[in-house]
């Protein structure tokens, strides 16, 4: 049952006793809470002009005690600490703030809906196929929220990559059928939280309210319904979260609780973007500070997560979103930039409350950093390093993405080209479980794969075959299936609108009739492979056995103990190759024929395989 009553956008309506000298309460975070949480402690951040001069009391409420309240540097905040034990029932606490006069605030405790409800927090696994989209750029289902009264982004301009375009939650929901037909099982929208910024707020990574959905996309209740409707349609939802930074129009920055709530240098200091400074045994202190205590960008203040009050505020917020919406997974933006101790505590708190929640982080690696550096940020085989031992289940696998691109764009060599992909996969020994990594060809931050591959359709198909047969959780960036292209620099065109998402669009790639022959061919290719993957668990949980690439051909098998085996052969050469199969006898033993998954042709014997240039074979062995 959904609990939609009481919008969590603002909570001023429940304050009583206003009058001269009364401390007004503008908001309390979290906006409401639940009984029955595993951690009985609750920290409330209360905001209002001059509020710090108040005394706080709690009217008698069985199962709830007021532990303490704390004044901060700002005169406009109080921290109120409560304990909610197992005897507490849903209802409204009466908090009294006594200044010259008294204000009573009714704070709501709700009944939990998540425990035991199998339709919520279902988790994300290697059985899923994630579709990454930007809500503002996917489809406009509700033109009435294109321009929001009082918002700093006053217009929409679809001809600008930095302005809002009008896409929203309703637009995504109207295309659930399209996503299901494509073989998608999980939707990852870039952040849906409020980004009330004058420029570029469409991307979602400069949040201005931790507890509100961006009104350009819908309301908080709309998002709850969105998740519920996705679940009813057999689709999961990944919630994109930002721990490391906020937008400069967030109320916490505009009216700071205390100076030590944010990292602040004498003048703006941009970070060095070097996550290796966290585990470098020879690191200079300045370099370490320049990574983790600087701002990500000029309009993105950096919360001081080493401050226990800030850490608790953030942990509670991300528990709140899971319980409130029932989302199935978290993608954690700029994971490596946060304070390491905070990351351990945050991950522990989230997974203790929701052990089934899927979680993977953005662990953006550069070409020279290698698999070890990426594995450091996930559950791995390493001992604690500089006091950090990650509890993040999986990573966005930038190393596999980079080496896959190299396989399709660089000449073949002993340790070049596709050999680099082999070595990256070989490095899986460093992860606790590499199948929890999310693998991808492109996303909203890197050049679209079709452009990277020189708009070569065969190379893109080969990349997609790898994506949907490799270990891990595959993620597709919106529009890849219809050959959307372009680069991240200089104009951000990799974030163009999906064709057909707006009624005035001249082409509608959501329909077969609206696609060009080339677009439809690519769409069909993705749908066929994704559907096969969805119905063949050997590609979810089967063991991976790969062979050292020879002559630019990389061969691997997915196989399980029930006798299911899929052979994948990637020819990374500009010419066709005929490959004798006797080298793979250990995996072919017991099989005499195969079916080509892509062409459905029968392969009558397993003597040789002829693979066209830049093509992938996907054979189901028989």
From TrEMBL:
The keyword tRNA processing does not apply. CDD domains: AmyAc_bac_CMD_like_3 (cd11340). Gene3D superfamilies: Glycosidases, Golgi alpha-mannosidase II, Immunoglobulins. One of its GO terms (molecular function) is hydrolase activity. Keywords: Glycosidase, Hydrolase. Residues 132-519 form the Glycosyl hydrolase family 13 catalytic domain. It comes from the Bacteria. This is Glycoside hydrolase family 13 protein. The lineage of its organism: Bacteria, Pseudomonadati, Bacteroidota, Cytophagia, Cytophagales.
């Amino acid at each position: 049952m959904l609990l939609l009553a009481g919008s969590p956008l603002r909570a001023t309506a429940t304050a009583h006793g206003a009058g001269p000298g009364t401390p007004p309460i503008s908001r309390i975070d979290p906006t409401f809470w639940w009984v029955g949480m595993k951690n009985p402690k609750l920290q409330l951040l209360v905001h209002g002009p001059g509020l710090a001069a108040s005394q706080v009391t709690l009217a008698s409420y069985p199962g709830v005690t007021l532990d303490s309240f704390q004044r901060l540097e700002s005169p406009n905040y109080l921290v109120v600490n409560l304990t909610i034990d197992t005897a507490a029932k849903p209802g409204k606490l009466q908090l009294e703030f006594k200044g010259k006069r008294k204000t009573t605030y009714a704070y709501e405790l709700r009944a939990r809906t998540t425990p035991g409800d199998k339709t919520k927090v279902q988790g994300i696994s290697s059985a899923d196929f994630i579709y990454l989209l930007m809500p503002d750029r996917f489809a406009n289902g509700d033109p009435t929220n294109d321009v929001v009264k009082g918002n700093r982004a006053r217009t929409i301009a679809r001809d600008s990559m930095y302005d809002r375009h009008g896409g929203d939650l309703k637009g995504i929901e109207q295309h659930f059928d399209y996503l299901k037909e494509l073989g998608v099982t999980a939707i990852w929208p870039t952040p849906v939280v409020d980004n009330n910024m004058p420029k570029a707020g469409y991307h979602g990574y400069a949040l201005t309210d931790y507890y509100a959905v961006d009104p350009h996309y819908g309301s908080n209740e709309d998002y709850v319904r969105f998740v519920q409707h996705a679940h009813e349609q057999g689709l999961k939802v990944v919630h994109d979260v930002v721990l490391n930074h906020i937008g400069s129009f967030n109320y916490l920055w505009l009216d700071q609780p205390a100076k030590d709530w944010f990292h602040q240098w004498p003048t703006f200091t941009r970070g060095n973007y070097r996550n290796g400074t966290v585990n470098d045994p020879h690191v200079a202190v300045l370099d370490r500070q320049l990574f983790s205590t600087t701002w990500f960008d000029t309009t993105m203040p950096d919360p001081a997560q080493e401050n226990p009050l800030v850490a608790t505020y953030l942990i509670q917020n991300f528990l709140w979103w899971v319980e409130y919406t029932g989302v199935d997974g978290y993608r954690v933006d700029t994971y490596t930039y946060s304070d390491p101790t905070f990351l351990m505590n945050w991950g522990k708190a989230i997974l203790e409350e929701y052990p089934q929640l899927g979680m993977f982080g953005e662990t953006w690696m550069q070409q020279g950093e290698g698999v070890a550096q990426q594995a450091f940020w996930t559950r791995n085989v390493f001992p604690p390093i500089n006091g950090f031992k990650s509890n993040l289940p999986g990573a966005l696998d930038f190393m596999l993405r980079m080496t896959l691109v190299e396989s399709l764009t660089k000449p073949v060599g002993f340790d070049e080209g596709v050999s680099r992909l082999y070595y990256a996969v070989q490095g899986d020994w460093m992860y606790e479980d590499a199948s929890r990594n999310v693998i991808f060809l492109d996303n909203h931050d890197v050049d679209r794969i079709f452009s990277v591959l020189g708009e070569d359709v065969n190379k893109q198909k080969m990349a997609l075959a790898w994506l949907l047969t490799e270990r891990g959780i595959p993620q597709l960036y919106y529009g890849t299936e219809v050959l959307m292209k372009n680069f991240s620099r200089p104009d951000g065109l990799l974030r163009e609108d999906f064709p057909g998402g707006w009624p005035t669009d001249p082409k509608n790639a959501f329909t077969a009739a609206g696609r060009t022959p080339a677009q439809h061919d690519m769409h069909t290719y993705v749908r066929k492979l994704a559907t096969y993957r969805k119905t063949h668990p050997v590609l979810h949980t089967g063991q991976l056995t790969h062979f050292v690439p020879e002559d630019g051909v990389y061969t691997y098998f997915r196989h399980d103990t029930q006798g299911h085996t899929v052979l994948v052969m990637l020819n990374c050469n500009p010419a066709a190759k005929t490959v004798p199969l006797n080298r793979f006898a250990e995996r072919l033993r017991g099989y005499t024929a195969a079916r080509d998954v892509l062409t459905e042709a029968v392969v009558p014997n397993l003597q040789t395989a002829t693979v066209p240039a830049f093509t992938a074979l996907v054979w189901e062995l028989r």
